[in-house]
Design brief:
mainly alpha, two-stranded antiparallel ribbon, 485 residues, 5% strand
């Protein structure tokens, strides 16, 4: 009588009470899964007929070799429970599967069948391809040490901590950057009935909060790197006062104080002088201070060491440019060796001294002559003429040896002689225009000597005074005859 409730496959007579495939078009045709998969046909039944699955929920998913006799309904409840409660919450999962299963049985079955079993081996590979590797941490951890390792507390006194509102054990301040950032996540709560859009919104809030925390940490790192806290507390001024000979930490004291970025280090007095002489600090000019102020905005994008290297490289560039200009000036004056430049500079220094002495002597002579010739108009005029002539001569001499800053960077400057440079500088005439006028005048002079009539084709920018000066200069230099001038 116990076998009356059982069902059998019409093809192989196997027991299909727990799971069978019933034909929807043929009556009393029920097959086991193996015969249905093989496409068995009996009588008028064909393999393409419609069918329905009859599941009693009591068959074993893993076969008779699985331990514990887990049915298909229990397997489905187990998968629903682990999706709902998460891996590790075995008590709630056992209550969801049924009272017949203990938490230990639920854990053992899931680990053995779904993780270490064939299904786990097929779904969980040993090595995940295309996984992003974190190169910021040497051990390959998920986070960089700069984000996980807290910074050491600031070395400041209790009074200074109260002044800053600083908590050393937490490395926090009473007023942080973006003080209201915690409001983004203070009211968040994760519920299992949340919709996808609500979950994404909460994730966006958490992401914004994490970015604000990173910005806080970045600002703290900048303050540590550039020693902004000691500067705010005025420690740098105190250290400068101590480094002075009359300060408390001077040479006569027991020790000296030297600032090393983040704080002060006390060293013996004997080594203070040796350190000062070993690494002398370059004096910063006013222009460099202004340039450092302009570049202050770049400090937040690079560490202190890189910023100082960048600033030193800019100083080296300025020095190299000045050296290049000096070498170019030597070449324009015909100097090709460095040992010759020493003699040139010495001679130039003597000429400048001589010009200064002449100008001072001429000014004294003019004042004495003008003062001693009271009431004599001719005498005053003569004195003024002497003084004026001396001043003009000094100006001309100075212009001859000057660097011609107004025309030295113009094209054609290297084609001029020293006297021509003085002439162009005094007339405020560009080198290219002077060369053009000189070429026209010499060509016309040669045509007249050959008897060829020629018209004057001088440019319009050349007036009579400049033309006469250029003609006199060319005749004195021997380019043209005096009759032509």
């Amino acid at each position: 009588m116990a076998d009356l409730g059982k069902k059998y496959c019409v093809n192989c007579l196997a027991d299909v009470t727990n799971l069978r495939i019933r034909c929807a078009e043929c009556q009393d045709i029920e097959l086991c899964p193996e015969c249905f998969s093989a496409g068995a046909e009996i009588g008028n039944h064909r393999r393409w007929h419609s069918y329905q699955q009859v599941d009693g929920g009591r068959f074993s998913l893993w076969g008779p070799e699985a331990e514990g006799g887990w049915t298909s309904r229990e397997e489905q409840s187990l998968l629903d429970a682990i999706e709902q409660y998460g891996f590790g919450n075995w008590e709630d999962m056992a209550a969801h599967v049924g009272a017949s299963r203990t938490p230990q049985e639920v854990m053992d079955h899931y680990v053995s069948m779904y993780i270490h079993g064939n299904l786990g081996k097929a779904c969980i590979p040993d090595s995940i391809p295309n996984r992003v590797t974190d190169h910021t941490c040497p051990s390959g951890g998920p986070l960089s040490p700069s984000l996980t390792t807290p910074l050491p507390p600031l070395d400041i006194s209790v009074a200074e901590q109260q002044q800053l509102g600083y908590m050393p054990l937490r490395d926090d301040y009473e007023i942080e950057y973006d003080q209201e950032a915690e409001k983004l996540i203070s009211g968040l709560s994760v519920n299992y009935d949340d919709e996808d859009i609500e979950i994404e919104m909460k994730r966006a809030h958490v992401d914004m909060y994490v970015r604000k925390l990173r910005e806080r940490q970045r600002r703290k790192n900048i303050a540590r790197d550039y020693s902004l806290v000691p500067a705010f507390l005025g420690r740098d001024k105190k250290e400068k006062e101590r480094e002075r000979p009359g300060g408390a930490g001077g040479v006569g004291g027991a020790g000296g104080v030297i600032g090393l970025g983040g704080g002060a280090t006390i060293i013996p007095t004997g080594s203070l002088s040796s350190c000062a002489t070993a690494t002398p600090k370059r004096k910063i000019t006013k222009e460099e201070k202004e340039q450092r102020t302009k570049l202050r905005a770049l400090c937040q994008f690079m560490p202190h060491r890189e910023f100082e290297e960048f600033f030193d490289n800019m100083h080296k560039e300025r020095m190299l440019r000045a050296k290049v200009r000096e070498l170019q000036r030597y070449r324009r004056n015909g100097i090709t060796r460095l040992d010759e430049s020493v003699e040139y500079e010495a001679a130039r220094h003597k000429r400048e001294k001589r010009k200064e002495n002449k100008s001072v002597t001429g000014s004294k002579r003019g004042s004495s002559v003008g003062g001693g010739a009271t009431g004599l108009g001719a005498g005053v005029g003569a004195g003024g003429g002497v003084g004026g002539g001396g001043g003009v001569g000094a100006i001309k001499e100075e212009g001859k040896d000057s660097e011609f800053s107004s025309i030295e960077n113009l094209p054609g400057f290297e084609l001029l002689s020293d006297r021509e440079k003085v002439l162009c500088n005094s007339m405020n005439l560009t080198p290219t225009r002077y060369v053009t006028v000189k070429t026209i005048i010499i060509k016309d002079h040669l045509q007249k000597r050959q008897g060829i009539p020629s018209k004057s084709r001088l440019p319009s920018y050349l007036d009579k005074v400049l033309k006469k000066r250029i003609l006199n200069f060319l005749s004195e230099s021997g380019w043209i005859s005096r009759e032509a001038s």
